[in-house]
Amino acid sequence: MSDDPILYARFLAHGPSVRVRRTSEPGALPVTAVLEVSGGPAGAPGAFISGSAAITEQGVVAASPAGAAGTTEIVLSAPQQAASVRITQAVPGKALTGQPGQVVHIPAKSATRIRLKSHKKAANASLIAVVVTPLTGSGPVYAARVAISGGAVVTVLPVNSSPTRIDLPSVRQSLVRVLGS
Length: 181
Prior knowledge:
- This protein is mainly β and 181 residues long.
- It has one helix spanning 175-179, and strands at 6-10, 18-21, 34-37, 47-50, 59-65, 71-78, 83-90, 102-106, 110-115, 127-134, 142-149, 152-158.
- The chain has a domain at 52-163: Sandwich (Hypothetical Protein Tm1070, Chain: A), CATH 2.60.290.
- Helices cover 3% and strands 41% of the residues.
- The protein has a four-stranded antiparallel beta sheet with strand order 5-10-7-8, with no helix packed on it. A four-stranded antiparallel beta sheet has the order 9-6-11-12, with no helix packed on it. Strands 1-2 form a two-stranded antiparallel ribbon.
- A hairpin with a 7-residue loop joins strand 1 (6-10) and strand 2.
């Protein structure tokens, strides 16, 4: 690892520069990055996002703005192999299961942005839930949810994995087992 504390720098033509700076001694601690983007009402510091792991099984984000409340975008990244995901959404009171969703393909070593469109049934909803499910055979995929209101970025949240099943160890001692059935 280089002794230069700037790990990554990029200057954007239509916005602020992006820079990742190491603040620990080289090789002493792992690097954790946080991204800050401008947005929100006047005087607000902007929106922040921390890193997250690749999505396994599915990632869920609740309370994403829709309709008059704003718009929701999903940013998907496939840093290694190409990936495909299914994005499903539902309004409060409706199940996410059984929804057809939208299949999105992300080329290898790239990212893509998807603006979610409200369904006709969700025309009056101000919030939606979003599920991102990597399809079989996809490479690792990372995702973030961007909430936009009044034309400004309000929040950027990582889409974290939400397991569909949790395996627990067998019960070895229980009242039924001790007393008999």
